[in-house]
Amino acid sequence: DSDLSMRTLSTPSPALIFPPNSHGFQNGRGSSTSSSSVTGETVAMVHSPPPTRLTHPLIRLAAKHQKEQANIDRLPDHSMIQIFSFLPTNQLCRCARVCRRWYNLAWDPRLWRTIRLTGETINVDRALKVLTRRLCQDTPNVCLMLETVIVSGCRRLTDRGLYTIAQCCPELRRLEVSGCYNISNEAVFDVVSLCPNLEHLDVSGCSKVTCISLTREASIKLSPLHGKQISIRYLDMTDCFVLEDEGLHTIAAHCTQLTHLYLRRCVRITDEGLRYLMIYCTSIKELSVSDCRFVSDFGMREIAKLESRLRYLSIAHCGRITDVGIRYIAKYCSKLRYLNARGCEGITDHGVEYLAKNCTKLKSLDIGKCPLVSDTGLEFLALNCFNLKRLSLKSCESITGQGLQIVAANCFDLQMLNVQDCDVSVDALRFVKRHCKRCIIEHTNPAFF
């Protein structure tokens, strides 16, 4: 019995994520059960589970009195697990230190399908190592239950942390490391190679990442894949500034199942990169190339090859796109639901007319900062796009109250209207509010409230 008791007490406790200069949990004798924390940083700590019994009579009496007052302890296990499921990883680890029952409940496998860590000071590499080691106890070196890892904004995450995930979590389906600018192509290569079920990857803001592939050579000369492909469907590479056309070619060739791709502010991407993308990734439903200043009407011609599969397109601040590019999209992508063309100053009423007549199921449109769009364009929208729910006309200098009234009289389902910095009267805004009762109006007219 004593051997069994000793084995139980030596079981590693949860990995606790402490803020800077925090102190460990004090046991009944006043000594700390945690190892000393590193000054000025957040680290992952290992603790023993809470003791099974308290020896001192006064302590037992106090504990008994406290237990009688703790209504939460009367809840059944399944209710406690449901409550714990709403806690972030660090708080779940803290709950495991309360008592032995909470310790056992906190490590229920159903609670560890997701690891979520945030914070600039947290030592993410060590936290991931400790957590995966604890989760691999029943299946040595393999964590079968973990499917999602979110460590967004953790600037101290390095390749070492991603290596830990890649080696221990073969069932990983979702990985978000946005804003972790210390990771490189090598670590991403390991993850996509060792986690064949990965479907959702967010590396936005990771400026060192230039490629997603199954080959270590991130070049345009692709090595044979022998039928192997990456199963990623959702890829966010926003703010990956050094991504170029060659890297996009490699990504497209390896990730042929992509349905959602976001390349916001990938400023080196050109029309040639979009041509590569359309050769391999023919199932894309959502695409963003906002602030890609080298994308032009020729790129729109390539994107139009997606035809009716394309539902979401963002080309905001792509100054080289004109009515010609809009006509390509409108002609072939008739099922488009969302279009963000803010800041595309080459778009006029003619482009809006062609879009309205061909994409009649459009629900959201942003043509803010398009000075050549006027009330005439709004009239075409109002007479064709009856399902319009969101419309942004911010800083459209040629828009007046007359155009807004036509929209409000025909688009009854309008839920959001942005007319900031537009010369529209109070009467026009009141007309919109009267006809579109659920519409939230964003404006800069101090007389309207």
TrEMBL record:
Q: Specify the pathway.
A: Protein modification; protein ubiquitination
- Gene name tied to this protein: Fbxl7
* Predominant cellular place of this UniProt entry's protein: cytoplasm
Segments carrying the region annotation (Disordered) are 1-37
Assembly behavior = Part of the SCF (SKP1-CUL1-F-box) E3 ubiquitin-protein ligase complex SCF(FBXL7) composed of CUL1, SKP1, RBX1 and FBXL7. Interacts with AURKA; interaction takes place during mitosis but not in interphase. Interacts with BIRC5; this interaction allows BIRC5 to be polyubiquitinated by the SCF(FBXL7) E3 ubiquitin-protein ligase complex.
| Biological processes, Gene Ontology terms | cell division; protein polyubiquitination; SCF-dependent proteasomal ubiquitin-dependent protein catabolic process
Q: Where is the F-box domain?
A: 69-115
Query: Which UniProt keywords are present, listed alphabetically?
Result: Cell cycle, Cell division, Cytoplasm, Cytoskeleton, Leucine-rich repeat, Mitosis, Repeat, Ubl conjugation pathway
Q: What is the organism of origin for this protein?
A: Chauna torquata
What does this protein do, in the record's words? Substrate recognition component of a SCF (SKP1-CUL1-F-box protein) E3 ubiquitin-protein ligase complex. During mitosis, it mediates the ubiquitination and subsequent proteasomal degradation of AURKA, causing mitotic arrest. It also regulates mitochondrial function by mediating the ubiquitination and proteasomal degradation of the apoptosis inhibitor BIRC5.
Keyword Nucleotide-binding in the entry? The reply is no
Task: Decide whether keyword Iron is in the record.
Answer: no
Q: Which SUPFAM superfamilies match?
A: F-box domain, RNI-like
The biased composition feature labelled Polar residues covers: 1-13
The UniProt entry's GO CC annotations, sorted and at most eight, read: centrosome; SCF ubiquitin ligase complex
Q: Where is the protein found, in the record's own terms?
A: Cytoplasm, Cytoskeleton, Microtubule organizing center, Centrosome
| Protein name per UniProt | F-box/LRR-repeat protein 7
The record's InterPro entries line, in alphabetical order, gives: F-box-like_dom_sf (IPR036047), F-box_dom (IPR001810), FBXL15_LRR (IPR057207), Leu-rich_rpt_Cys-con_subtyp (IPR006553), LRR_dom_sf (IPR032675)
Family note: Belongs to the FBXL7 family.
